[in-house]
Every structure is written in C-alpha cells, then in structure tokens.
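3.2 Worked example (two chains)
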Amino acid sequence: MPRFQHTAVRAAAAAAFTFALACAADAPPGGDATAASMEQHEDSLAEAADDAAPAVGEIPAGGLEDWIADVRRGLERLPAAAAADPAGAQHAALDLYVGRQEYIELFYGPRGRLTAGETLGPAVERAEERFHELLLLLGGSEPPDSAQVRKAVAAVEAEYDRVLEEAVRAGVPLMPASAPAAH
C-alpha cells in the first residue's frame, strides 16, 4: 500500500475512533435512534474532515512550520469552543488532526519521507500521542472544562516545539519539495 494511502487509512481510523466516542456519549442506548444518531455524526465528521483536509494526493500548502502554525491557530480556540460547543470543538480538533497532523507524520514521523536523526520521528510520535489524548478528552461522555482542554492543548504545543527543534537539529527540509507554497 503506498504511504499516502496508509496515512489516509490511519486518518479514517482516527475519525472512526473519535466518531465512536462521540456516538457513545450522545446516543441513547439501543434502538433505531442510536443508528440514526450514529449516521448523523458520521456524516458531520466526514464533511468536517473533507473541509479541512486537502484532496487525496494533495499536500497542504507550506511545510512543517506552516502546518504546526495552522494547528496552533486552531488549538487556541478549543478551550472556549469546548465549553460553548463540545461537538464543534471535537470536529475542529479532528479537522486539524486529519488536515495537518497526519501530514506532519507522513513527512517527519518515524517512517516519514524526510525523517532524519534518531529523535525527530519519536518527537512527532509524541505529538501525535498528545493529539490523541486531546481528541479523547473532547470526545468523552462528559464535556471537558476549559482548564482540561487548555492543559491538553499546551501538551500538544509543547511537543510541537520539540518537533521543530528536532527537525532543525536533524537538518531536514522544513518544506517538502512536493508541497505547494504557503499563501
């Protein structure tokens, strides 16, 4: 399976996992109402991911620094959004994950196209783990409070600081040759 398809499959799995958490939290047990709720959530998540993610085979504009900046801009709104609209915050986080984090991993993760050195890949992996923790927090049965979300966002951002440091230290290109220039 080509690397991009593998990443797309992982992104779909992450979306399905987050979707399952959301449905478990929102839907009443059993019956047709659960199936209808699940279908509605699935459609919403698919639309949100389509809006944020580049087309299949299309790499987001920019490079590592731009992608991390995009995620940071989105994450800074999550604590307030989680309090006002938990489902919207979860969708926004998933959009960032699918539309940027997966590309960071594709290029700079442990088996990434541009990974070099012994510490860049693991740094990307730790950032992804913190992102998963944030998605789980946002997809829980109880809406998280803003302080919890702020703490989870700070953990993701701290790992991104390490990713950037390790990328510079490894001397890898911060912009993949195949990525379009940032606007």
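3.2.1 Second chain
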Amino acid sequence: MPELSRSQVVVYGAIAVALLLVGARAIRAEEGGRSFAVESSAEAAGSGGFSISSSGGDVVVDVTGAVQRPGVYRLPAGARVIDAIERAGGAVGGAAVEGINRAARLADGQQVVVPERGVGGAGLGAVGEEGPISLGAATAEQLEEIDGIGPVTAGKIVEYRDQHGGLASVEQLDEVSGIGPATMESLRARLQP
C-alpha cells in the first residue's frame, strides 16, 4: 500500500470529521424535530385518501355532533377546529357551525361538538328547560341565564373558550376568573362540553 503524504492525511481527516458532523447533525435533527408519516386509510379518505400527521406534537381530539364520521382523531399541533371537522368528514346538512369558533386552535384532549339545528333553527346552544347548554355553542347571553353568571363572567367564559379552541370539559371553567365553587355547581348542572 502506498504511503500517504502528511497533507493527504490532513485532507482525508478533515473530510472524515466533516462527514461525522453532518451525520450527527442529521441524527439530532431527526430526534429533536417532528417526524412526519403519511397514512392511507378509510378515515383519511375525506382528505383525498392520505393525511399527514406529525408524531412529535400531535393533538388528539374527539369530534362529535353533526359531522359525517364522529370519532377520535390525531391532528398536527397547531391545527384548527375546522381541520378537525374536515377530518371527521365535514359537517352534515343540519349542522349549526356558526355556533362554534372554527378558527380556534385545538388543544390535546379537546372535544369538538358540532351542534345540530333544533326546531325553529336554534342550535344545540339554545337555552331551554329541556336540557343542558353546549359550551361549544353557547352565546354570552345564553350563559347569563345560568344562576351566578353575569355579563362580565359570561364574556370571560366565551373569551376563554375562543382563546383555547373550545373546552374539553365543564371543569376547565374553573380556570376562568370570577367562577367560584357555587358557580361551578350551577355550571355543571346546566352545561355540557
């Protein structure tokens, strides 16, 4: 084997070190970043047969109510309520989508309830003696009709819901300032997620 000159050894060594650094950087980027996978399934058929999901920062949401395929779906972090509705096949004809904030960001574990129109065009959020009010569709005026909720607190609830992409449970309202234990009891009796 021919002997290498000193300058050749330095060049080959520099190339080896550069390749090791590039390889290490690629491995670190793969571990630290999101890895994307393309899945093909019947559930993804509504989005053209394929869906892209990231395993690093996904959110899992329960989409229910007036949608084609209610169920639990995994979506990329940063997805919006409208993305979850579309993943569930879209809203059905009798949906009252104007009752929810479709632009709100999704939170992990959130339930997205797409209300149906009731008799006379009212959505699920309509206040009535027949059942609880939907947190996803209730207006500030509807919330004010609950014992212990005034205009300021009702506004804070709607603002909190819009900022957090909805509410996964009535218990989340405990994080809204102005809601104490007595008000929480009234809310549990009159609201549903």
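3.3 Remarks
Residues 35-90+102-116 form one domain.
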